[in-house]
Design a protein that fits this description.
alpha+beta, Immunoglobulin-like, 6-stranded mixed β-sheet, about 50% strand
Length: about 260
């Protein structure tokens, strides 16, 4: 019995290998046949603002990675808005495929103020298997404040790449660029979206940067500045509407003064 023990052990190992090989091959084929399988090895990150304006479009980037990147040939994503009161909400484009795992798209805020959930379905493709993971991201939709002004080119030559900065309480919020033909005009449109803001006075300033010095606001200056006052009164939306009404009143007042000067 002692002499035959090594032979018995060898035969047992051989039988195990013969049985395991077809099982491993079967598992590999089964993984492929079953289609995409969920995997927590996929990481999904969404870069973009946490607060967007109702009915306004904002830029986002989804970044997909896998724990073993050398095994992945390509990635894909599909995005959609889930929940209720989603009229006007939109993702453009809502899908894509590429090797980098980085995809840019736009999200338009719903017409209803509140929470909006973006669902990202990320897929990683191996040679013999496909993995996926679904993750949700919450975005707050707020009623924006619209800031409008008019640019005028007083020169006989065109002015290109004229920048207009929106500065609120000393912080640069956004910069836009405009091209104006000789003696032409253009409308400047900004929107300000916030989830929280201190009560009291806030300064909104628009500044023109034009090397030719021939583009100004319609009131005849390259800086448009005004103070607005915000009070939530226990209701954020009511406070925003109050601020908007004050701002619109200032714009109308400036317009009336400008018309009086022209007359």
């Amino acid at each position: 019995m002692t002499r035959n023990r090594p032979l018995t052990l060898f035969m047992a190992v051989l039988m195990f290998l013969l049985l395991a090989m077809p099982l491993a091959a079967f598992d590999s084929l089964a993984a492929t046949d079953r289609g995409p399988q969920e995997s927590m090895l996929i990481d999904i990150r969404l870069d973009g603002p946490n607060v967007i304006g109702s009915g306004l479009q904002s830029d986002f980037t989804v970044r997909i990675s896998y724990a073993y990147p050398e095994r992945i040939q390509s990635f894909s994503f599909a995005a959609k808005i889930v929940g209720t009161n989603l009229a006007g909400a939109l993702v453009t484009p809502n899908n894509g495929t590429g090797s980098s795992g980085s995809f840019s798209f736009n999200i338009t805020g719903a017409l209803t103020v509140g929470k909006m959930t973006v669902e990202i379905n990320a897929t990683a493709f191996e040679t013999d298997a496909t993995w996926y993971r679904i993750k949700e991201f919450e975005i707050e939709v707020m009623r924006p404040i619209y800031i409008d002004a008019a640019l005028v080119n007083s020169g006989n030559t065109s002015a290109n790449n004229v920048s207009v900065q929106m500065i609120i309480d000393g912080a640069l919020m956004e910069t836009k660029y405009y091209n104006l033909s000789a003696l032409g005009s253009a409308s400047v449109n900004f929107s300000w979206v916030f989830s929280t803001i201190p009560q009291g006075k806030h300064n909104i300033k628009l500044i023109i940067d034009d090397e030719s010095k021939i583009v100004e606001f319609s009131k005849g200056d390259n800086v448009l500045s005004m103070d607005v006052y915000y009070s939530d009164s226990g209701n954020l939306l009511r406070g925003i509407l109050s601020l908007m009404i004050i701002f619109v009143g200032v714009i109308l007042f400036l317009t009336i003064i400008q018309k009086g000067k022209k007359k």
